[in-house]
Amino acid sequence: MLILTESALDRYATVPDWDGPRVVVRTPDRANEIRLPEGTVVAEYLQPPASATQLLCDLTRWLRPRLAENTAPLLFLDRTADTSEIRSLAERGRSHAKKVETEWEGDRLVMLSVGAAVAETPMLPEFFDFLCERGLSEDTTMIRLLSETFDWK
After folding, report:
1. Three-state DSSP class for residue 90
2. How confident is the model at residue 19, as a pLDDT?
Protein backbone atom coordinates (compact mmCIF):
# COMPACT_ATOMS: atom_id res chain seq x y z
CA MET A 1 0.00 0.00 0.00
CA LEU A 2 1.29 3.45 -0.91
CA ILE A 3 0.12 6.23 1.44
CA LEU A 4 0.89 9.81 0.49
CA THR A 5 -0.08 12.80 2.61
CA GLU A 6 -0.49 16.33 1.31
CA SER A 7 3.09 17.00 2.39
CA ALA A 8 4.28 14.32 -0.03
CA LEU A 9 2.56 15.89 -3.03
CA ASP A 10 3.19 19.30 -4.47
CA ARG A 11 0.41 21.29 -6.15
CA TYR A 12 0.89 19.65 -9.56
CA ALA A 13 1.84 16.18 -8.40
CA THR A 14 0.58 12.98 -9.91
CA VAL A 15 0.24 9.88 -7.78
CA PRO A 16 2.78 7.34 -9.09
CA ASP A 17 2.04 3.76 -10.15
CA TRP A 18 2.05 1.17 -7.37
CA ASP A 19 1.41 -2.57 -7.29
CA GLY A 20 -1.02 -2.39 -4.39
CA PRO A 21 -3.57 0.09 -3.07
CA ARG A 22 -2.70 3.79 -3.45
CA VAL A 23 -4.04 6.21 -0.88
CA VAL A 24 -3.88 10.00 -0.85
CA VAL A 25 -4.61 11.66 2.49
CA ARG A 26 -5.86 15.20 2.15
CA THR A 27 -8.02 17.91 3.64
CA PRO A 28 -11.02 19.40 1.80
CA ASP A 29 -9.16 22.61 0.89
CA ARG A 30 -6.82 20.63 -1.42
CA ALA A 31 -9.54 18.49 -2.99
CA ASN A 32 -9.07 19.62 -6.59
CA GLU A 33 -5.32 20.22 -6.63
CA ILE A 34 -4.05 16.66 -6.96
CA ARG A 35 -4.44 14.56 -10.12
CA LEU A 36 -5.54 11.12 -9.06
CA PRO A 37 -5.19 8.06 -11.26
CA GLU A 38 -8.17 5.75 -11.46
CA GLY A 39 -8.39 3.43 -8.47
CA THR A 40 -6.65 5.80 -6.04
CA VAL A 41 -8.32 5.82 -2.64
CA VAL A 42 -8.82 9.25 -1.09
CA ALA A 43 -8.89 9.56 2.69
CA GLU A 44 -10.24 13.02 3.39
CA TYR A 45 -9.87 14.40 6.89
CA LEU A 46 -11.34 17.66 8.14
CA GLN A 47 -8.19 18.01 10.24
CA PRO A 48 -4.96 16.09 9.75
CA PRO A 49 -4.68 12.98 11.97
CA ALA A 50 -2.75 13.51 15.19
CA SER A 51 -0.06 11.02 14.19
CA ALA A 52 1.02 8.59 11.49
CA THR A 53 -0.08 5.83 13.85
CA GLN A 54 -3.62 7.19 13.97
CA LEU A 55 -3.67 7.46 10.19
CA LEU A 56 -2.42 3.88 9.75
CA CYS A 57 -4.98 2.61 12.25
CA ASP A 58 -7.75 4.32 10.30
CA LEU A 59 -6.54 3.14 6.88
CA THR A 60 -5.96 -0.47 7.85
CA ARG A 61 -9.48 -0.57 9.30
CA TRP A 62 -11.14 1.15 6.32
CA LEU A 63 -9.19 -0.76 3.65
CA ARG A 64 -9.08 -4.21 5.21
CA PRO A 65 -10.61 -5.98 2.15
CA ARG A 66 -8.07 -4.36 -0.17
CA LEU A 67 -5.20 -5.17 2.17
CA ALA A 68 -6.17 -8.84 2.05
CA GLU A 69 -5.13 -8.77 -1.62
CA ASN A 70 -1.96 -6.71 -1.09
CA THR A 71 1.36 -8.14 -2.32
CA ALA A 72 3.33 -4.88 -2.29
CA PRO A 73 5.37 -3.20 0.45
CA LEU A 74 3.71 -0.58 2.61
CA LEU A 75 5.14 2.89 2.06
CA PHE A 76 3.94 5.91 4.05
CA LEU A 77 5.32 9.31 3.04
CA ASP A 78 4.67 12.59 4.81
CA ARG A 79 7.40 14.53 2.99
CA THR A 80 8.06 15.33 -0.63
CA ALA A 81 9.38 12.53 -2.79
CA ASP A 82 9.69 12.23 -6.54
CA THR A 83 8.58 9.22 -8.55
CA SER A 84 12.08 7.77 -8.84
CA GLU A 85 12.54 7.81 -5.05
CA ILE A 86 9.16 6.13 -4.57
CA ARG A 87 10.13 3.44 -7.09
CA SER A 88 13.45 2.95 -5.31
CA LEU A 89 11.72 2.61 -1.93
CA ALA A 90 9.26 0.12 -3.45
CA GLU A 91 12.10 -1.98 -4.85
CA ARG A 92 13.88 -1.91 -1.50
CA GLY A 93 10.62 -3.02 0.17
CA ARG A 94 10.52 -6.01 -2.18
CA SER A 95 14.20 -6.95 -1.91
CA HIS A 96 14.24 -6.47 1.89
CA ALA A 97 10.81 -8.00 2.39
CA LYS A 98 11.09 -8.43 6.16
CA LYS A 99 12.52 -5.00 6.96
CA VAL A 100 10.92 -1.98 8.63
CA GLU A 101 12.59 1.36 7.87
CA THR A 102 11.76 4.84 9.13
CA GLU A 103 12.75 8.43 8.60
CA TRP A 104 12.07 11.19 11.09
CA GLU A 105 12.07 14.99 11.03
CA GLY A 106 12.51 15.79 14.68
CA ASP A 107 9.80 13.79 16.44
CA ARG A 108 7.59 13.50 13.34
CA LEU A 109 7.53 10.26 11.35
CA VAL A 110 7.86 11.27 7.69
CA MET A 111 8.62 7.92 6.07
CA LEU A 112 7.72 4.37 6.97
CA SER A 113 8.65 1.48 4.71
CA VAL A 114 7.41 -1.97 5.62
CA GLY A 115 8.77 -4.80 3.48
CA ALA A 116 6.40 -6.85 1.35
CA ALA A 117 6.54 -9.98 3.53
CA VAL A 118 5.35 -7.99 6.54
CA ALA A 119 2.95 -5.73 4.61
CA GLU A 120 1.08 -8.62 3.01
CA THR A 121 0.56 -10.62 6.19
CA PRO A 122 -2.96 -10.59 7.64
CA MET A 123 -1.31 -9.89 11.00
CA LEU A 124 -0.50 -6.28 10.04
CA PRO A 125 -4.09 -4.96 10.20
CA GLU A 126 -4.52 -6.92 13.44
CA PHE A 127 -1.42 -5.17 14.80
CA PHE A 128 -2.95 -1.74 14.07
CA ASP A 129 -6.29 -2.86 15.56
CA PHE A 130 -4.38 -3.76 18.72
CA LEU A 131 -2.85 -0.26 18.86
CA CYS A 132 -6.20 1.46 18.24
CA GLU A 133 -8.06 -0.59 20.83
CA ARG A 134 -5.50 0.41 23.44
CA GLY A 135 -5.37 4.07 22.44
CA LEU A 136 -1.69 3.90 21.45
CA SER A 137 -1.14 6.69 18.95
CA GLU A 138 2.45 7.79 19.56
CA ASP A 139 4.61 7.09 16.51
CA THR A 140 7.77 6.13 18.40
CA THR A 141 5.84 3.51 20.36
CA MET A 142 4.19 2.19 17.20
CA ILE A 143 7.55 1.84 15.42
CA ARG A 144 9.14 0.10 18.40
CA LEU A 145 6.24 -2.37 18.66
CA LEU A 146 6.12 -2.88 14.88
CA SER A 147 9.84 -3.66 14.77
CA GLU A 148 9.61 -6.02 17.76
CA THR A 149 6.48 -7.78 16.49
CA PHE A 150 7.72 -8.29 12.95
CA ASP A 151 11.39 -8.92 13.63
CA TRP A 152 11.55 -11.72 11.06
CA LYS A 153 15.10 -12.71 10.28
Report:
1. helix
2. 83
